[in-house]
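Q: I have two molecules that I believe assemble together. Could you output C-alpha cells for the complex as a whole instead of separate predictions?
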Amino acid sequence: MSGGKHTLWQVMQEKGYSRRDFMQFCTFAAAAAGLGPDASAAVAKAFEKKARPPVLWLHFQECTCCSESFIRASHPIVADVLLDAISLDYSETLQAAAGHQAEKCKSDTMKAYAGKYILLVEGSVPTKEHGIYCTIGGRTAEDILQEAAAGAAAVVAWGNCASYGCVQAAKPNPTGATPIQKLVNKPVINVPGCPPIADVMVALVTHLLMFGRAPELDAQGRPKEFYSRRVHDTCYRRPYFDAGMFVESFDDDHARKGYCLYKMGCRGPLTYNACSVVKWNEGTSYPIQSGHGCLGCSENGFWDNGPFYRHLPAFPGFGIESTADSVGLGLGAAAAVGIAAHAVSTNIRKRQVIHDQVVEDVKNAPKSEKVD
Amino acid sequence: MPSPHAYRRIYVWELPVRAFHWINALAIVTLGVSGLLIGKPFSVANAQEASFQYWFGTVRFIHFTAGYVFLFNMIVRTYWGFVGNKYARWDTFIPTTKAAYKEIVEVLKIDILQMRVKGLIHIGHNRLAGLIYFITTFIFFFQALTGFALYGPMSKSIFGKLAAWIVPLMGSEMAVRQWHHAMLWFYVLFTMVHIYLVFYHDYVEGRGTTSSMVGGWKFEREDLLDH
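A: Yes, here they are, computed for all two components at once.
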C-alpha cells in the first residue's frame, strides 16, 4: 500500500514514469475535464502538490465487464497511471493480496483516510434473504457497501448493475438485486452502461482526482458530459432516419447500404450515452456502426424491455410475441363485433319505438306542412 | 297549444364546444395516423440520397405539431368548462348527485340492455357519457404528458421539460414509449364506440344528436322539458 501523503507526481516517479509520461497524463486529464490546452500546466502543478486520494474498488453482483472495459481505455498511459500509480488500495480482480491481507488493506485505508477516499462500486447488491446471495469474507455485500460508503468522499456506481440493477434486477429479480443509489445515504455518481465506455470511466476518475469533486450530474446522477445526449442524436445514420430509409431485415439490401436500424429495434432514440461520439476500442466503432442496433444498455430496466430486435417491447401479461399493437387490434376487432351485434339488436328491439315516433310525428304535424 | 309530443329546439353546444370537438377530432386522427407511422414506418426504397428526402422527419413534425394543437385545445376546453353554458360545465362530467348515478344506470339500461326508459335523459351529455369524457380527459392529459416527455429531449420546449419527471417515474423512456403507444388504441376503441353511439341515439330517439355537433341544436319533447 502506497502512502497517502505522496502526490501523484511522486508516486509516478517511484514507479518509473518519466516527466513526459506525467505531462501526457496531465494533458489528458485536462482534456477529459473539458479544460483548454493551457490548463495542462495548472493540472500538472496540482498533481505535483496535492496528495492523491486512495481508491477502493468493490465488486458485488457483476460480471467484471466494467473492469474489463476500464483496462481497455484508449489512452494506455492513463489507465496505467490510474491502476498502477494511483492507490487502488482494494480491488478483488486486480490486487495482488488475498484473503485476510486484502481485507486488512481495505480496512486500514478506510480508517486512515476516513472521509477522503474514493469508492468505486461495480455490481448490484442483493437484499433478499438478508443478502446471502453475495458475501465476501463472510460478510454480505450490503454490509461491506455500507461500511465503505460511510467514510467515502465520493461514491461511483460503475455500470448498469450498480446504477440500475441490470440483468440481476430483471424480472423476477430473484436475489432482490438493488442499485447502489437506493442503498447508500449520499449522492452517487452513476456511470451506466453494460459496460460503460472505457474512456468515460477514465475521464470520470481523472476528474475526481483532479478536482476532488464530482462533475456536473443530471437528475439521474449521470455525468452530463457523457450522458446528456441520446445515441440517436449523434448517430451517423441519423439522416437515414429522417429520410425514412430503414433496414427491414439484417440480410436485406438496406442493411448492406447502412440505413437506419430503427425498425430493427435500435434503442438509440431512447438511450443516453456517448457511444456514437467516443466509440469503443480506441474509437474504432460502436454497435450501430457495426450494423447492429443499440440495446439501450445504459438505460434503466433494458433487459425487461425486450425483445431487442423489435421497436415495441412485449406487452405485459400477453406473452413475449405480443405488442401494444396486437393487443389493441384484438380489442378493436372485439369492439367492432360488439357494435355490429348491438346494431342488429337495436333494429329488432327498438323497432317499435322508432315506428311509434314516425307515426306520432306524422299525426302531429300541422296540416299545411303535411306532404302526403 | 302544443301537442303532447311536440319538440322544442334547444341551443346546447356553443361555438367553442363545437370548435373544440372538431379540432380535437382532427388532432386525434392526425396524431393517430402519424403516431402509427412513427411506431411502424414503411421504408422508402429508392436510389436517392438520404439528404434529398425528409419524409419521416415530416411525419414526426406533423405529430409534434398536432400534439401542441391537441394540448392547447384541451386546455381551452377545460377553461370553457368553468365559463360555458350549463351543458358545457364541469359538473356535467362529474357525477356528484344521487340523481346522476340513477341516470347512469338508466343510460346503461337504454344502451346495453336496450330497454325503454321513462325519465328524462340529460339533453347535453348524458350522465354516463359525461363520466366517460371525464375519465377520457385524464387519458388525454396522460397522452400529452408522455408525448411531451418523449419529445422533450429533442427540443428546447418548456413543455418537454415540464413533462420530464414522468420518465424516472415510469422507469425509462422505453416504458413511456410503450404506454404512449398502447393508449393510441384507447382512441381507436373510443372513436368506434363514440361514433356508433351517436348514430344509435339519433336513430332511436331522433333528438338530432348527430347534427347537434355542427349547428349546436338539439330537440327535446316539450312535455318532458318542464320537469
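A: One point stands out. The first helix of chain A runs from residue 8 to 14.
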